[in-house]
User: Which sequence fits this backbone?
């Protein structure tokens, strides 16, 4: 079972998400919270694998909660919930350590599938959405320069792997594209996260976009 924590200050949204996720045989909503402070306590108490986190809440907001949760030992995957897929608030959540984001209007079956993806440690962020978010970032040029400085010490192969993360590819997909063993790709990814000071694959993928490693479409 995949234990999930739902965080939103709107009880109707929590009820809606509970209903959808509860229809899946392998997902269990173990708790819900109405603000960020409750969310952090619920993570410690219930140990979910995935947290669906609303960003705009009174009291302790989603951004603060994401930073606190991802700083915990063995943190769950935190997926930001937003109303619009081009919400510039989301990019701050990704930089705070979120594993990706979902639009609240995501169809039920897609939502279930994406929760499973997050539970497996993969990015819940489409490349097109990443490009839009980077483009909307108010400090885009400065971020781009910083990103290029951060990746300057990577080898050519590491840059190839990082670009693939920017496309949202899994380790298996990267291995096929670059003709590497999947275990080798996993080693590259783990090493790069440390080198680049990225909390997860999503942050690394976002960095790839900011550095211009991912082709625009």
Assistant:
């Amino acid at each position: 079972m995949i234990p999930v924590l739902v965080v939103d200050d709107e009880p109707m949204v929590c009820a809606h998400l509970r209903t959808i996720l509860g229809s899946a045989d392998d997902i269990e909503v173990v708790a819900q919270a109405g603000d960020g402070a409750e969310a952090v306590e619920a993570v410690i108490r219930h140990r979910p694998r995935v947290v669906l986190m609303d960003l705009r809440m009174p009291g302790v907001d989603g951004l603060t909660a994401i930073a606190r949760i991802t700083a915990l030992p063995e943190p769950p995957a935190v997926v930001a919930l937003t109303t619009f897929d081009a919400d510039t608030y989301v990019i701050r959540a990704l930089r705070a350590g979120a594993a990706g984001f979902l639009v609240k209007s995501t169809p039920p079956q897609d939502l279930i599938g994406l929760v499973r993806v997050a539970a497996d440690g993969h990015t819940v962020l489409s490349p097109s959405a990443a490009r839009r978010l980077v483009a909307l970032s108010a400090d885009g040029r400065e971020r781009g320069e910083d990103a290029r400085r951060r990746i300057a010490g990577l080898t050519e192969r590491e840059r190839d792997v990082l670009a693939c993360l920017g496309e949202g590819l899994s380790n298996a997909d990267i291995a096929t594209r670059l003709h590497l063993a999947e275990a080798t790709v996993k080693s590259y990814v783990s090493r790069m996260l440390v080198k680049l000071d990225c909390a997860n694959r999503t942050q690394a993928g976002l960095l790839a976009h900011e550095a211009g490693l991912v082709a625009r479409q």
